[in-house]
Design a protein that fits this description.
It is built from nine helices and 13 strands. The strands form two sheets. Strands 3-5-4-9-10-11-8-12 form an eight-stranded mixed sheet. Helix 1 packs parallel to helix 3 and helix 1 packs parallel to helix 6. The two termini are 39 Å apart. The structure holds flavin-adenine dinucleotide. Flavin-adenine dinucleotide binds next to helix 1, strand 2, strand 3, strand 11 and helix 6.
């Protein structure tokens, strides 16, 4: 008899894993605490997705019409300090659209999706249960993520990265002639600030005035404004008892644009041992161990390098140095890109 798989969390990791397993006729139930479609805090810029991953998972056509992004420019105080062609093109598509497509694919393949269903932690270590619940909120963490969409916004590069003081924002194209504007900031006291005002308040407080002025001159889609707080970029505590995937294994700072690719690649890596467990070829502890080893070796280095670079790009003292190094062609971009993707 084929063993069923239960997945907690219907984000990119959970849904794409569910699709890959359903393609092998394995019974899968996904419990998702929220609902679809919805806006999520995400730069919606998929960078460094390894060739063949989307096909292996069976989600390539969900990404087929994503916009191709080839160039990136970095800005300090509204001035472009550096521009470059990306070593590999990235994809731009909103999570509102992508997650909905994955849901439709999963259910069309006969997967069972239970929305508004939050799996309890004590249920998560039962054999056959995968924990793909995204970031773990940390009480002491001081990062806030904010995102929204705008129309009538002219881009200078396919991805503009604006470095501010204690925060940065990326701007890139998504479908429908819109751009996604998403940033990570050190959390500030914001009592009394309306959710719809938060992005501009944070942009101005982080000295991203030039970008804020461009946003004000564009058409902001207020319904797309979302935020999440208490983000932590410290390594996630090791949890060998649970089968974890995606952001639950630890966050990678968003300037890499790599978190979504890692969610997909992690799902593709995990699908093999999980299918072996479901078909009785591997016991659960062996499936868990095989997946843990594969995921650690695929992602350990890129998370560590990105964590080291993260504070550098936020430090006002480091930014003039970055600008000078960039002007003189001394930024080892391709080398760092390869280490973080
Ligand atoms: C500010 C910011 C910008 C980013 N920009 C980019 C970018 O440009 N490019 C990129 O590649 N990555 C980016 N990322 C990272 C990317 O969004 C994540 O890496 C990716 O979404 C991880 O997918 P996931 O499936 O692990 O988690 P998620 O997509 O977060 O999904 C987890 C799901 O689990 C559900 N859930 C939680 N707890 C439970 C429970 N107990 N039971 C049931 N369901 C539960 C949640 O509702 C959620 O739907 C960014 C992140 C941030 C914070």
């Amino acid at each position: 008899m084929t063993q069923p798989i239960t997945i907690a969390g219907g984000g990119l990791a959970g849904l794409s894993l569910g699709i890959a397993l359903r393609r092998q006729d394995i019974p899968v139930v996904i419990h998702e605490a929220g609902s679809y479609p919805r806006h999520r805090v995400c730069g919606e810029f998929i960078c460094g997705l390894k060739a063949g991953t989307a096909e292996t998972l069976g989600i390539d056509d969900c990404l087929a019409d994503a916009l191709t992004c080839r160039t990136t420019g970095w800005f300090v105080a509204g001035r472009r300090i550096w521009e470059r062609e990306l070593p590999t093109p990235a994809l731009g598509i909103s999570r509102h659209r992508l997650d909905q497509r994955l849901v439709e694919r999963f259910t069309a393949l006969g997967g069972e999706l239970r929305t508004g269903s939050r799996l309890r932690p004590e249920e998560s270590s039962a054999p056959g249960t995968v924990w793909a619940t995204g970031r773990r909120a940390a009480k002491s963490a001081r990062w806030i993520g904010l995102k929204f969409h705008c129309s009538d916004f002219e881009l200078e590069d396919d991805l503009e990265l604006h470095l501010g003081v204690g925060g940065y924002m990326g701007v890139s194209r998504i479908e429908g002639g819109k751009v996604n504007i998403c940033g990570l900031f050190r959390q500030r006291p914001n009592a009394g600030v309306l959710k719809t005002e938060l992005p501009l308040v944070y942009m101005r407080a982080s000295r991203l005035d030039n970008l804020a002025a461009r946003v004000e001159a564009s058409t902001l889609d207020f319904s797309s404004i979302v935020g999440i707080s208490r983000l932590s970029y410290r390594p996630a505590p090791a949890d060998r008892e649970r089968f974890s995937l995606g952001d639950r294994l630890g966050l990678i700072p968003p300037f890499t644009g790599d978190g979504m690719a890692m969610a997909f690649q992690g799902a593709a890596l995990a699908a093999g041992p999980l299918a072996d467990y479901a078909h009785g070829r591997l016991a659960w502890p062996q499936a868990l161990d095989t997946a843990h080893r594969g995921l650690r070796s695929a992602f350990g280095r890129r998370r560590n390098v990105a964590r080291l670079l993260h504070p550098l790009i936020l430090r006002p003292a480091a930014q003039p140095f970055l600008a000078t190094a960039a002007k003189q062609g001394l930024l080892p971009f391709n080398f760092l890109f390869n280490l973080t993707h």
